[in-house]
UniProtKB/TrEMBL annotation, chains A, B:
Pfam families: PadR (PF03551), Vir_act_alpha_C (PF10400). The lineage of its organism: Bacteria, Bacillati, Actinomycetota, Actinomycetes, Kitasatosporales. InterPro entries: Tscrpt_reg_PadR_C (IPR018309), Tscrpt_reg_PadR_N (IPR005149), WH-like_DNA-bd_sf (IPR036388), WH_DNA-bd_sf (IPR036390). Residues 92-173 form the Transcription regulator PadR C-terminal domain. Residues 7-80 form the Transcription regulator PadR N-terminal domain. This is PadR family transcriptional regulator.
Length: 181, 181
DNA sequence: GCCGGTTGTGCAACTAGTTGCAAAAAGGCT
DNA sequence: AGCCTTTTTGCAACTAGTTGCACAACCGGC
């Protein structure tokens, strides 16, 4: 039940059309909660039907026409409610770790290359986060909103750092393993 | 498409009934790929229909009767194929980080308590992993299977370590924030 | 010998997320 | 004006995961 709240957050940060939201879910918010444009359009429809958001009037509404949405008071209230409510951490599901478990049983052939590829991807993501940090969070700014957002970005940075380190370690381990069958 | 392969891996490690699998998905494999018993039973049916696993004969099959499954050669081949195939890392989705983004907009009321709760949960999980490490991976054992499984466990340990550190840092940050509204 | 809890299996209906495709509008080209 | 491409929105059908419940067997106590 997080997608609607991700959208409410994004719209509160800045009212947007479906496509603009889609773009923003490819970065920023999307780094922590990814979504495709179909999910977004469908959810926008639901949220509007529930009275949590509305389209900004302005232009005539027609197919292929930009519709900009903004959050209504009820939407903000719902987001505040959800934010304050306790939630259990979601169960982990990581295909890569699963694959290594499988490789322990059926052999490691082919895995190493993909580990290298993943390492490269995580390095890239880490570099991107670091760039954002430099751009958006210079040392002097510390309004509460900035500190919270910086905290979230920090989690991203530290997670990518973990993956690059772990993958490096894993590849070193593979180098010491007998040949894959 | 990972659940069937998680099950194949578990069954190769040890042939089991549906319930035994369910129990093992509450620990071990389940730490990296969680699944409910309904998912498991359904998938066992599919895998059997596809000829990747079969029930061990032995007892008479009846409702409420333990059925033990084992992996057939086709199943092992499919698992090897999947293990070797390249896969993209899955997009991140973390409700907690999303909540902090939302909190930056609608206020931090109520979040802090839940952060503390999460910290406690992650600490517990970390302690459990460490115990497993001590029990299953004494310093001298280093068969390739053990090294791979240890590597996976290490990822779990490092991830939980990251979360406890990050949550600790987050709570410290909260302490320095103006009062939540 | 049957009664009630536990064990083991499973169906049905639901929510969440993905994939493939298409249609309306806008803008450029000639 | 007519055509082509890109932008923006959206439907439909699918796969994956969750929730709630049901039903049979088995196991103990009385």
């Amino acid at each position: 039940m997080s997608l609607p709240h991700a959208i409410l957050t994004a719209l509160l940060e800045k009212p947007s059309s479906g496509l603009e939201l889609t773009r923003r879910f490819d970065k920023s918010i999307g780094y922590f909660w990814s979504a495709t444009h179909q999910q977004i359009y469908r959810e926008l429809g639901k949220l509007e039907a529930e009275g949590l958001i509305r389209t900004l009037p302005a232009e005539q509404p027609a197919r292929g026409q930009k519709k900009r949405y903004e959050v209504l008071p009820a939407g903000r209230a719902e987001l505040a409610r959800w934010t304050a409510a306790a939630q259990d951490p979601r169960a982990m599901r990581d295909p890569l770790l699963l694959r290594l478990r499988a490789a322990a049983v059926v052999g490691t052939a082919g895995v190493e290359d993909d580990l290298r590829r993943h390492l490269e991807l995580h390095r890239r993501q880490l570099a991107e986060y670091r760039q954002i940090e430099q751009r958006d969070f210079p040392p002097d700014r510390d309004a509460p909103q900035d500190r919270l957002r910086h905290l979230v970005l920090r989690a991203g940075i530290d997670l990518e750092t973990f993956w690059t380190q772990w993958l490096t370690h894993a590849l070193a381990e593979f180098a010491g393993l007998p040949d894959a069958d």
